[in-house]
Design a protein that fits this description.
It is built from ten helices and ten strands. By secondary structure, the protein is α/β, with parallel strands linked by helices.
């Protein structure tokens, strides 16, 4: 993990006079897993969205593999940056298979048989192969989020961004999504993960970034930041969140394959 692949330099974003991100710089190496933690409203999600220009920064720059993101090239470069959101954003009129296939088919123009084959492999990889023909209304929240992960992976991105992907899930479904993400970290995929799941971040991340009030307060390997944070603000945050023990234990792969997700019309 030596080559930089995603770089944010001096990124700043202001909403109606409120500084959401204040001159933040963050370098991500190829193959690195970076977990971004911090209290609500600290700028984590805004920074993540600035890193693929879903929100255009007011100042600073973002580079992917050394290429500067601009208005002229953002659509092309964004294809190489997958993103998974809190609220799934699946197309309700499409099956799981077609949701996963949509990007390569309609954005990249790949042949239907090629994208369907890849989509089936990806659904298998997130333990939902048997749900290929199901519509989102027939999937639980955990299943929807795993389809969303497969959909982002279908574009074969260089980097994956995850924006608090377990926040909208019922507690019993969180572990299912974290298991899939844990498996992804073992593939060498570059990942930037905004999360409130401290146990998960501590286990899988190469580096933890703690943000507060639009700034990176400190960063470092999990072994250091969780056990000996340097800043008092980081210490107070970790004391508060770790007391709540938000982490959900592993869900066996067999349980996922047996499809023991809750089946509800509205999902989780």
């Amino acid at each position: 993990m030596s080559e930089l692949i995603l770089q944010a330099a001096g990124v700043r974003k202001v909403f109606e006079g409120h500084v959401a991100v204040a001159d933040v710089s963050l370098d991500v190496k190829a193959g690195e897993v970076v977990a971004v933690i911090g209290p609500s409203g600290s700028g984590k999600t805004t920074l993540l969205r600035c890193m693929n220009w879903l929100i255009r920064p007011d100042a600073g720059e973002v580079r992917l593999d050394g290429e500067l993101l601009t208005a002229a090239n953002v659509n092309r470069i964004r294809r190489r940056i997958g993103m998974v959101f809190q609220h799934f954003n699946l197309f309700p009129h499409m099956t799981a298979l077609d949701n996963v296939s949509a990007g390569p088919r309609f954005v990249l123009g790949e042949p239907l048989d090629v994208v369907h084959e890849r989509a089936r492999r990806l659904l298998d990889s997130v333990h939902l192969g048997e749900k290929a023909d199901a519509y989102p209304s027939k999937l639980s929240g955990g299943q929807k989020q795993r389809v969303a992960i497969a959909r982002a992976l279908a574009m074969q991105p260089d980097v994956m961004l995850f924006d608090e992907v377990t926040s909208a899930l019922d507690p019993e479904l969180v572990g299912q999504v974290l298991l899939v993400m844990r498996e992804l970290t073992r593939t060498g995929l570059t990942m930037v993960v905004v999360t409130h799941e401290m146990g998960f971040a501590r286990e899988v991340a190469d580096r933890i970034v703690f943000m507060d009030e639009g700034l990176i307060v400190e960063q470092g390997p999990p072994s250091e930041l969780f056990t000996a944070p340097k800043h008092a603000r980081t210490q107070r945050f970790l004391e508060a969140v770790l007391e709540k023990a938000p982490y959900t234990e592993d869900v066996p792969v067999s349980d996922l394959r047996a499809d023991r997700d809750l089946e509800t019309d509205g999902g989780g």
